[in-house]
Specification:
The protein is of the alpha+beta class and 203 residues long. It is built from nine helices and seven strands; from the N terminus they run H-H-E-H-H-E-E-H-H-E-E-H-E-H-H-E.
Length: 203
């Protein structure tokens, strides 16, 4: 394969930070992100993120809006290059590195933590909505579940709200109709992994 076909995407778009931001926005074209969330997800310094956001906003390719005292940025669907950018960044730039979570199953993503994970609830939390994205049930004494959640966060390209509970804590709180657990179970659930019937057992 020629060098031309292996050009790093940052060379096409001027900088590594700008390329990462474009990847974030246009592979998630309906989502909004605030600055500190972006710095964490793309792993870049806040000053370079602010600078590139200003550049992208000046040409109208992204937009911002304020919500709950935070400024959220998103792809501008009215820009004439919106559709081409979505087409570019919705494809895998580096197939050896990127594994789109939409093309995989949660079953596959939980394989590295199977010995620690005893239950998982994946929630469809809307932008700006309070609550969790993931309720993780298992023993996290070694912090393997915490590190796993951070990996999933990067794969999804957004900050994830998650909570980790021991099976005993979850079972007890479910048995006494704890408000937090009740709220989680009443939300729109995308996926449940429950190998020991902890989640779907008696309420």
């Amino acid at each position: 394969m020629s060098k031309e076909n292996n050009t790093p995407v940052e060379k096409l778009f001027g900088s590594k930070t700008r390329a990462k931001l474009l990847q974030l926005f246009f592979s998630n074209p309906t989502k909004s992100f605030y600055i500190r969330e972006m710095t964490r997800v793309i792993d870049e310094q806040i000053n370079s993120v602010r600078r590139e956001l200003g550049n992208l906003e000046s040409i109208g390719i992204i937009k911002n809006e304020s919500f709950d005292n935070k400024v959220y940025y998103s792809a501008n669907s009215k820009h004439p290059y919106y559709r081409p950018m979505v087409d570019i960044f919705s494809k895998k730039i580096d197939s050896a590195r990127d594994h789109d979570i939409k093309e995989s199953t949660w079953d596959e993503y939980t394989r590295p933590v199977r010995n620690y994970l005893q239950g998982l609830i994946v929630i469809n939390r809307l932008p700006g909505q309070d609550g969790l994205d993931l309720l993780i049930i298992g023993n996290d004494k070694t912090k393997k579940l915490t590190r796993w959640a951070e990996v999933i966060e990067k794969k999804q390209g957004k900050m994830i709200n998650y909570a980790i509970m021991t099976p005993e804590d979850f079972t007890y709180r479910k048995s006494v109709h704890d408000r937090f657990i009740e709220d989680v179970l009443e939300m729109e659930i995308i996926e449940v992994i429950d190998p020991e019937n902890i989640i779907k057992g008696k309420r």
